[in-house]
Amino acid sequence: MAGIFDGKVVVVSGASRGIGFGIAKAFARDGAQTVLAASSESNLAAAAHAISESGAQTPLAIAADLRSLAGCESVHSAVLQRFGRCDVLVTSAGATRAGAFLSQSDEEWQDGFALKFYSCVRLCRLFWPMLRTSEGFVINIIGGAARTPDPEFLVGGSVNAAVANFTKGLSGLGKRDGVNVNSILPGLTETERVKELFEQRAKAAGITPDQARSNAVAKEAIRRLGQPEDIAELAVFLASDRARHIQGTAIAVDGGGTPGLY
C-alpha cells in the first residue's frame, strides 16, 4: 500500500505514543503528510523524529491541551495555515482512569470527558469543512468499554459510549457531505496506557498489577494483547477508497474479547 496517501494530510490526535503514534506512523509509511497533536512536547518530538527517521515525510508536531477548545483550535489553525487541507482526521486522544466508583472524584469524570469526548467533538467540528471539501475520512479510536460496561471502569466506559453514539450520529451528516465516518474499538493493547490501567484496576481490586493483567486476559480468553500496529492497519484501510462503502461502523480489534453480538 506504499504511496496511496501521497499528497494527503492526515491529522492524528493523541499521536505522541501508543495507538495514536502507531496510526500516524502507518499513514506516514504510506506517503501521508502527518500532523501529530498531543500535550507533551517531548513525546511529540520523539514521535516525529521516529517517523522522519523511518524515511517518511517529517510530521508537523503540535503541542496543545486538547482538553480545551483553545487547544483544539490551535491544531486546526496550524493545519489550515500550513497545508490548507485535511484528508483524514483520526481522534485517538484520551486516557480515562479506571478505579473504584465510590473513590473516583468529579474531577476524574470531567477530565475523562474533556480529553476524549469533547476533543473528539471539537476536532470533528473544526475540521469538517476541510474534510467535506476533500471528501475525506474521520476515524475515532474509542475502546471496547463502549460495549462492555465494567464497574471498575465506569468513567472510561461512559466516555467511550458517548463517543460511539456521537460517531454514529456524525456518520449521518457524513453521508450527506461525502465524508466517511467510522470508529475502531481496540481491546487490550500493549501500550503504556494499558499498563497504567492495570495498576489502577489492581489498586481498586486489592490485587497486584500482574494479577490484574492475568485476570483481564483470562476473562476475555484472548491469545495475546493487541499491538498498536493491529489498530493502525485497520485505520489505514478505513481511510482508503477501498473502504468508501463502509460508513457509520464500529469495528472491534480485540482478538475476539468482546462478548455478545453487538
Question: Can you put this structure into words, describing what you see?
Answer:
The chain is built from eight helices and seven strands. It has helices at 18-29, 41-53, 69-82, 106-134, 154-177, 192-205, 209-220, 228-238; strands at 9-13, 33-38, 60-63, 88-91, 137-141, 180-186, 250-253. Strand 4 (88-91), helix 4 (106-134) and strand 5 form a beta-alpha-beta unit. Helix 3 packs parallel to helix 4 and helix 6 (192-205) crosses helix 7. It is globular.
Which secondary structure elements does this structure contain, and how are they paired or packed?
Layout: E1 9-13, H1 18-29, E2 33-38, H2 41-53, E3 60-63, H3 69-82, E4 88-91, H4 106-134, E5 137-141, H5 154-177, E6 180-186, H6 192-205, H7 209-220, H8 228-238, E7 250-253
Parallel strand pairs: 1-2, 1-4, 2-3, 4-5, 5-6, 6-7
Helix pairs in contact: 1-8, 3-4, 4-5, 6-7
